[in-house]
Amino acid sequence: MPIIVRLDVELAxxxxxxxxxxxxxxxxxxxxxxxxxxxxxxxxxxxxxxxxRVLECQPGDLLEWVEx
Length: 68
Hints:
This protein has helices at residues 7-14, 18-25, 29-36, 45-55, 59-62; strands spanning 3-5, 63-65. By secondary structure, the chain is mainly α. A two-stranded antiparallel sheet has the order 1-2. Helix 2 crosses helix 3. The chain is globular, with a radius of gyration of 11 Å.
């Protein structure tokens, strides 16, 4: 998929654990792992909004398009 989720980079920058992030966003750690490992097929805007609020970033900081 040409969309890459850069969640691991943003979590590392903030030194935030997956567990803490999952709790603050309202996701299960398993669903955060799906996002973090690039296995997600979709992300709801509500989830993206919560992720950006917790990480204090823009959607473009979390998502990147790359050519196949």
